[in-house]
Amino acid sequence: MSLSRSPSPHPGGGWSSPGLTPASGSSTPTRGFPHSHSPNTLAPNTAWAAAKAKSEEVRGYPSFSTRNSGFFSRQKSKISGRLPSFHGTKSPHGYVDKDVYGRERWYRSAGDARGVLGMILRRGRARLVLGLLLVCFGYLFLWGPLTRLYRRSPFGGGRKFVIILGSNVEGGVMELKGAREWAIERNSIWNKQEYATTWGYELEVVNLLAKKRYSHEWRESWEKGDVIRQTMRKYPDAEWFWWLDLNTWIMERDSSLQSEIFNSLDDGVYRDINENNPLNITHPLPEFYLDELGRSLEGDGKTDSLQMLLTQDCSGFNLGSFFLRRSLWTDRLLDAWWDPVMYEQMHMEWEHKEQDAFKYIYQSQPWIRSSVGFLPQRTINSFPPGACGDENNPTVHYQEGEHDLVVNMAGCSFGRDCWSEIYKYREISRRNNRSIFTILQDGVYKWVFGDTDSSSSV
Amino acid sequence: MQFALPPRKSPHPLPIARSTRLPYHRRKQLKTVAIFAIAIATILYLFSHFTSSSSTSAVGPAGTTGVVIVTILDRKSFSESFIKKIVTNREDYAKRHGYTNFFASSSDFQEAVGDAPQSWGIIPAVRHAICKHPQTKYFFYLSAHALIMNPTQSLKSHLLDRAKLESLMMKDAPIVPPDSIIKTFTHLKEKDVDLIVTQDSEDLSPGSFILKNGDFARYFLDLWFDPLYRSYNFAKAETHGLDHIIQWHPTVLARTALVPQRLLNAYSKDSPSASADGIYRDGDLVLRFPGCEARGGDCEEMDPYYMLWQKRVKRA
């Protein structure tokens, strides 16, 4: 109540004491104005006089009009006048004492509210409702951050995985980097960032700028190995390093690497290359001088000895998407992969550079075979139509209904359009991973506007 | 009467005060639940730590004890008497110290080596020895044109003992003499050593080396034997191949101990390529005849030393 200050003077001389009438101070009294006319006496042809009077009203007492101009100061008594009271508005004495009435009503209403709340709380069911509400709010606002926190913690194991994304390929040195290239880069990085933050993985976007030391007749295309080594140094706690080319798209943000691959390494991986052998590699090696491990079909058969996971496409090894595990074996592989003597002899024949070099040492050096595992191609490296043939091959090409994890637009820079492919799969992935709200929203849109969904037209 | 604050009709207990009013058994229950939760969390944490630390181990332990001496005999160009001398020399040494001999025939590896010089056969021979003796810890390759001159000295006391090896290995020494820019690591420890090798005045010497069984041995031998090295026409075949991989592949260098030549690979007195202190002196373990090796076939220079050795064996 505003009784702590004196009643404010009113334009036109009168005053109103706040608290007496609910609307006091907010509207001007109808009487007491020197030029006011009551509506009855206002002749139709004196409209200008009324207008003049009005304008005089406005101009009349500028010093006072600032007083009650704020919304709250004007509405205060109205607001307080409408506060709920649970008991009758009249005092038991039958008359209204304004001081006591106001105060009485204040504390009584507060006390009653507390009492009612307490009463509700005392009932078990209401408490349950309150609890559920709390849980709902907690779920809405805290669930995401908490699960992410957990996944990044040592329990969640998210930090055991590092995604290495080769970006800025040759850095626009050989060919100008246009809007499409920038769009590919931006989108591809965003896509991996989303996936990495969802699951608590680390993401290392590496710059594959053209450098002389990686150019032809130096260590051509060997930045891959160097970059993986650097990343392994940078994340000393991580175990698996996932190389991804820039022209890839992670389609299923909600499937973790653990659930897709690493929780069932025994079942998902084949080590015997004869299961799918487009290169016709002799396996196992027949040499009599090799020990059992060197001549075995499946290495030592232990999951722990798998240090590299890759896929084969229709023409053999594909290193657009592969895993390496931190180990001595991996150090040795990265070391043996590039060798000046081998490179000197083969650099004209190894068209696919490090991929061909790896293929070569896999064939010629038995120690490598026992730790390499192959994943079915569509686990981490589905192809779009156009790569490996145009017809839909269910072992090679992306199958929309089956939620393949990754699409690799392999070879899209040779006569295909990388950006339109990436865009297409971005939209498919968006459609596949809609939340319930978005699905509902889309349904309503479809219902209202007919089937004009932009994503379905792509 | 006006009050600064409305009086409390039913004073609400403070939340802290409420907890003290919890029934005793309930508090106890909560306590047990909390203790259990913490215990389970701790166990899970430890468990996850243990599993992650053990996951990086590779194939199980290979050899644990013993030494296999690998010798390649060229039965086509060696005379029977020469072969007999070599075999006697090796077998005597093996018998004294409980070692095993592995004699390979160079013709076995002709196909594997292919068009390259037959001296590449060292590598599949050692690989074959490992295949035949998977439980043995050390493999000592010694050229056929070499004699073990000190029968009483065991490899362990001579070289393989931890303190001994750490005091003997050459640190920060150029790998290829006299002045290659790649040098052996200064911080190498005995437990990291898988390959013990010597150098003469020109190259690393693959005529006499000790290799520890295990993953590294497979890797090292397979890499060394890569077909592209064999087809590269290194002037000194596998010797230059060895120089090459140890200089270019740090994962090999990191496991290699370079020791002074005479410890494992003393040359006969007229060899031009012996290092500064590489000529055989009385008491050295091994005497090698690089001149005979280059020529192939039998080795007459060996005869006086063989007689000397026979005397020593009788005395010992």
Automatic annotation (TrEMBL), chain A:
The chain crosses the membrane at residues 128-146. The keyword Transmembrane applies. One of its GO terms (molecular function) is glycosyltransferase activity. Residues 1-49 are annotated as: Disordered. Belongs to the glycosyltransferase 34 family. PANTHER family: ALPHA-1,6-MANNOSYLTRANSFERASE MNN10-RELATED, ALPHA-1,6-MANNOSYLTRANSFERASE MNN11-RELATED. This is Alpha-1,6-mannosyltransferase subunit.
Automatic annotation (TrEMBL), chain B:
GO terms for biological process: protein N-linked glycosylation. GO terms for molecular function: alpha-1,6-mannosyltransferase activity. GO terms for cellular component: mannan polymerase complex. Gene3D superfamilies: Spore Coat Polysaccharide Biosynthesis Protein SpsA, Chain A. The chain crosses the membrane at residues 30-47. The keyword S-adenosyl-L-methionine does not apply. Pfam families: Glyco_transf_34. Keywords: Glycosyltransferase, Membrane, Transferase, Transmembrane, Transmembrane helix. InterPro entries: Glyco_trans_34, Nucleotide-diphossugar_trans. Belongs to the glycosyltransferase 34 family. This is Alpha-1,6-mannosyltransferase subunit.
